[in-house]
Amino acid sequence: MLKIRVLVVDDAVVMRRLISEALSHDPDIEVVGAAAHGRIALAKIPQVNPDVVTLDIEMPEMNGIETVREIRKTYPRLPVIMFSTLTERGAASTLDALAAGATDYVTKPANIGSVSMSLQRLEQELVPKIKLHGRHLLTPGTVPVPRKQASPVPLPVNTNLPRFVPQPQPTELVCIGTSTGGPNALAELFSGLPRNLPVPVVIVQHMPVLFTKMLAERLAKLGTLPCCEGAAGQLVEPGHAYIAPGGHHMEVVRSGGVLRLHLQDHPPENSCRPAVDVLFRSVASACGASALGVILTGMGQDGLHGCRALRDCHAPILAQDEASSVVWGMPGHVVNAGLADRTLPLREVAQEITRRVAAHRRTPALHFSPLS
């Protein structure tokens, strides 16, 4: 049986051993090499032919971001999973690495008490991502679709699903859910939105504390929509975007005729907090058919039940297509459940949002960013 071949790159000997031991516990994974920094890793890739590379960010000689850029020149589809620290610097570096072409990331186990707990954390968080991005090797007869980055086996699509007719009601709010591949997808989407979008945008991106704040700041710098991490009781204003803070569920509530954000610490849903399902259910309750749901690239099925709540209120839903998704899990589940009004490549999602927001509404012409 084929195994997923992994090259482990980290400047700390202890961390290399810890990662290698955690991966060795899984019968589907084989550690085929280790490297202390990027230059050694680049030399080893053609020697050991890995299917996945795990890559530390902070390293001497050549750091993780520089290494990703070099890997992408020769291996555009080799999955690269970054290791980052739960700090502002680590969050910023992770977003830089994703923008440079990294496929995914995990946070390093730190201050969790023991080696056994560190191993458990790695097995829970790293192993599933390695299997996700190397899944074609574990399924005989499947071939990965040629893309910029590796992807899982496509989910079967039910082509007999009915087409939904857009509701003749003005859009009041756009809600977006995404996970793996989301930071880059959101950046591309934001770059295509008009500066004077007359509705608010609320977002769940699966990321931990600090990471969501850094992501919001980066999206704001694109110059289209002002974007911030959502705060409890915050007024939801047209032309602004709000990202659910890591570690908290975010909801939209209607109070006194206006929309506000509500944060809560209920247990994770779909192993996520924030969860797309929580946000989308609240939007369905607060806005009904005047909401527009958007589900982008992501691992798992978070958002499926929330999209069902939106469809029950006759709210339309857009889903990113498989070809443009890093992982067609979240949008794939929504499409296969028959809940998507339209399935679009990422490059067309911003245009479709703009078209639907402008429909049934008397507003001045929408002015697009030079980035679009």
Outline the structure in words.
It contains 11 helices and 14 strands. It is of the alpha/beta class and 372 residues long. The chain folds into 2 domains: 134 residues, Response regulator (Rossmann fold, 3-Layer(aba) Sandwich), CATH 3.40.50.2300; 186 residues, Methylesterase CheB, C-terminal domain (Rossmann fold, 3-Layer(aba) Sandwich), CATH 3.40.50.180. Helix 9 links the parallel strand 12 and strand 13. It is elongated, with a radius of gyration of 21 Å.
Mean pLDDT: 89
Q: How much strand?
A: 15-25%
Secondary-structure arrangement, i.e. CATH architecture of the largest domain: 3-Layer(aba) Sandwich
Q: Which stretches of 5+ consecutive residues score pLDDT under 50?
A: 141-166, 368-372
Count the beta strands. Answer: 14
- With helices defined by DSSP (H or I, 4 residues minimum), what is the helix count? 11
Query: What general form does the structure show?
Result: elongated
User: In the CATH hierarchy, what is the class of the largest domain?
Assistant: Alpha Beta
Structural class: alpha/beta
The string of secondary-structure elements, in order, is EHEHEHEHEHEHEHEEEEHEHEHEH
| Number of separate structural domains | 2
**Major beta sheet, strand line-up:** 8-9-7-6-12-13-14
CATH superfamily of the largest domain: Methylesterase CheB, C-terminal domain
How far is the first residue's CA from the last residue's CA?
46 Å
Radius of gyration over all CA atoms, rounded: 21 Å
Assign a percent range to the helix content.
Answer: 25-40%
Largest sheet: 7 strands, parallel
